[in-house]
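Annotators were shown the component list below and the corresponding predicted structure, then asked to write short factual statements about the assembly.
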Amino acid sequence: MPVITLKVGRFSRFVGKPVTVSDLTKWLPWIGFDLEEVGEDYVKAEYNPNRIDFCSYAGVARALKGFLELETGMPKYHAEEPRITLNIDKAVATVRPYMLAAVVRDIKLDEDAVVELMDMQEDLHWGVGRDRKKASIGIHNLDAVEPPFTYTTVEPTSVKFVPLGKTEEMTPKEILEKHEKGVAYRHLVDLAPVYPLLIDRCGRVLSMPPIINGELTRVDTKTRNLFLDVTGPNLEAVEKSLKVLATALADMGGKIEKVNVHYPDRTLFSPVLEPEKMRLRLNYANKMLGLKLSEVESIKCLQKCRLDAEVVEKGVLEVSIPPYRIDIMHEIDLVEEVAVGYGYYRLEPTMPATLTVGEKHPASKLADAVRQIMTGLGFLEVMNFTLTNERTHYELMRLKPKNPVRLANPVSAEYTIMREMLLPGLLKNLAENRHESYPQKLFEVSDVAKINRRRETMCERRLHLASVTSHSTANYTEIKSVCEALLVNMGLANWQVEATRHPNFLEGRTAAIRLGKRKIGILGEVHPQVLNNFEIENPTAAFEIDLEWLLTKNSRGGNLS
Amino acid sequence: MAGLRLHERKTLMALQGLGGKASVEDIAEKSGLAHAAVMRATLTLSTRNLVRVHERKWNVVTLNEEGGSYAQHGLPERRLLRALLGLGGEADVDEAAREAGLDAGLMPIALGWLKRKNWGVIKGEKCTLNVNTEPPLGDDEKLLAKIFEGRSIIVDDLSRELKEALNILKKRKLVDLEEKTYRELELTEEGWKTVKKGLEILEEVTQLTPELIISGRWKSVKLTRFDVAAPGPAVYPGKVHPLQQIIKRAREIFLEMGFTEIRGPLVETAFWNFDALFQPQDHPAREMMDTFYLANPQAGRLPSKRFVEAVAKTHEDGWVTGSKGWRYKWNPEEAKRLVLRTHTTAETIKYLAAHKKPPIKVFSVDRVYRNEQVTYKHLAEFHQIEGIVVDKRVTLRDLMGTLKTFYTKFGLEKIEFWPSYFPYTEPSAQAVAYHPRLKRWIELCGMGIFRPEVLAPVRVKCPVLAWGGGLERLAMIELGLDDIRLLYANNLGWLRRTPLCQ
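Structure shown to annotators:
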């Protein structure tokens, strides 16, 4: 989640009155922030990605002023008529088709503001732009270049310019190969033989979207007039980014001026800062929230959230939404605004009148019964991850690799597949607890995953039970007694134990557990080679049962669940 | 005297027999008890003020092998002297050696000391005595005999002469010296009173046996009184895992509140995990860095075409919901990709797609996965608590009430609900609890009312109150852990020690 650090001194200037750290810690949670760090003169707060307008001091101040009723209702933004033209070359259609722009005049930026501009840009790139994929922003010193501007494409080596933060000229090709931003984002433009470029009347480069700006238009504390550009393959994301940025700059003291954007087939004027309208039915809001707010009361709530509303017919409000509220997409979003304006802390919890009778899932019933028996037999429950790796799961167990459910993007070599059985996990537990006293008797009742093409997900989840006993005299007889005690107490009839062979276990001391004709488990003395592999020093006997068979109807030997 | 055990009584009686003051060794010998048994008895007897223990550290001298041999057969010079006396006071060296039975190793020693003690002289091959009769035993020989007799001797107990003799024996490397702790017991006044009253030695039995019970012989034996506070060997119960106990508790609370448990697959299609929950296909949570995708198998099947189309349309332009939608082209292939479910809400929405009729109250406490590096704070695999309430007239306040009840039953006291955001709920909130030990608010769960864009495709007409939160976080509070990994470390020491009741 995105984070903003609010220094109280600077933030107070945006609010228009002194704000303390304790004011912020008290009120920010109620407008949707999570406090991450509270310092002596600052608060670091996380905000939700839908409220990307919180990426600026101005944005947070707007909301807080409304909530504290210092200034309520919708902030009005005005964009002057365009004086500058931006031409969109049809060639960009193949690489990054949309660009919108805005001019900000007469702004004063101190060092904090320059830094904030960069932070805002990054948050918008992430929040709306999806890491510059859908939209990316350039902020330029307008006075360093001459309009009209042209958004066009170039051959990889046909121009040279100094990218931001460098001192030497580079071609677009060199930037993609050598510049850190070029390397990071080349996948966004490397799909066509030409690259997008924003140039001025004289062919000077403002930026190479979405990679990097030119050093020429670098913004610093002396900059007074800005040119904002936003590019992307998605016009809506481009538009939203520009609205959030332009309104924040307006709140920072700039005068917004539209830009005449000439596409080959149409002309757009951006930014559009007129409010959007959306209807809200009061009874819908009251029904969702469990309140009985009147028209006046709900309008007040909305105004505290910096919206405006008027009654258009009985019980229906027409809500005006400021341009930076790009998150509102449905009437239900306005319902939440009412709730936030009302104050979540004022919502008295009530119990739903809904009467229902609850029931445990059969798998839980079965697992709990098994837990009761196993603990009664003196076994200690362990809980392992369902994710494991092939070495532990197969190699150490003397098994040939099977066909496990495998991750495409494992985060570590330790967790690459889903377990098909529980026993390897228990042996690992024994290996890691060699320093603890013996006997060690462990069990686990949990899930394994197996491929099953008949299922919608091509996989299935199966409830298993496995158990180990490890000490100097552990043997087959001991574990067989335990296993039989379990089966008998689960109320199962019709089970048998018969000799079998299995690589995990010692030959001649291995048995299959059958329920009717179905093999549901395996039982035996763990093979000494397996013990060596895990570096377990004590004889160990074990069993594993697939309990899922007992959950499937008609295959039940008893009537446990 | 009441309360004395067999060994203690035997020790007291031996001490009495030895005159009221004796070394541990002597008592052991007299009583027939092992040295260690006397020492254990002494511990009790001295705490009860029946004996006093005098403890001293002594230098103790013992004979080594050579010294022992001389003590038995006489010093070599003494043996040579006797042989020469028998041979008339003068003889060839070889002859004298034969007569004395001294081998080539001992002969130089014998000749050397004969000369030093001025008993005789050696001229060439001849050996001539200076004395006519056998001289009396020297101090060195007396000491040798004394040590041999007593096996060991305390250096401080020796007379001045013998101490000098000891120096000679030391130089001749016939003795070993070592420091020993010497304990002597002495009956106290109280102790004397006790023994004078008389002590009875009954047969004492440690383990009651079937034989003793059946025969009735238990009546005529004395059953040892145990030191009931003495530490015994540790045993460990079979137990349910502490985290499982908390899962069980969560499940119980849901059941107490009338919820029914549901269980779904761990592997899900992206469709159920994301698309059906109105999470756009370019949502950051769907990226590889947050979600585990499968390499085998890679893709699953989508549900009915009608339903999938409704979901697709809702994403694209809001469909019939009045929403703007996410405004992109929905891709069914993306929805078929298989993931390890990132939340149990995948199962909840699937349940709703199949059960539309209110009232519904279902829950799960089950495994979910996130593509996270495992650290003290994060796991790649953990449990989520999830529940929904579906009914005609349920509200956000009802959701708050339900959660307040749930977490209060869990023992959390100060609970608040702050605004929050989730792509599939609106209004959304998060439940937080004040952690008195950490002195800060901690997030319990995300919550909200399912968005119309989620409900329209599954054709559910009434509000759905939903919430989901981490279980391990609750477990950490409950168990007082700072490292979440410990929950899955299966450290036997921790499992064995962690109490069932917190």
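Statements collected:
1. Residues 554-561 of chain A have pLDDT under 50 and may be disordered.
2. The radius of gyration of chain A is 33 Å.
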